[in-house]
Amino acid sequence: MPPKKQAAKPAAKKAAVAKPATKSSSKKTAPKKRGKEKNAKAQNTGMLKKTFKKTRKVRTNVTFHRPYTQLTKPKPKYTRKAGNSIGKKTRMDQFRILRFPLTTESAMKKIEDNNTLVFIVDIRANKRNIRDAVRKMYDIKAMKVNTLIRPDGFKKAMVKLSPEHDALDIANKIGIL
Known about the structure:
single chain, 177 residues, four-stranded antiparallel beta sheet, 14% strand, rod-shaped
């Protein structure tokens, strides 16, 4: 009897060893079938991934121009400054246009020789605005207005007065002399 037990044990071991081998071989074949089944289902439904080769855009210019994008209007949570947002726009009146008269040597020479007053004016003022501002503030008629922008960024206006007005008298009235 004992020899039979010993003989039975190795046979059981062989059978146990053989069983996992058959199970693993059956497992290997099962996923392949499932994968093939999934591929077949995906092909039928059109869900299979396709691979594309990426093409590069041919550039014909050396400069790159940014493409136009959508512009959206700002939607502020609150109004920012009370001055312009309420609706009262700050206007250019005569006090804002004429900032101050120039009292340099060359300006004094123009007053004496050319019957011309020289002012520093607002940078946004044009010749018509300057002419009207001089007429309103000093009650004089300007014949001609020449302007230039100085290197320091201020605008200078040379206002030639009509012959009926004397620049020296008006300069004294203003307080230049």
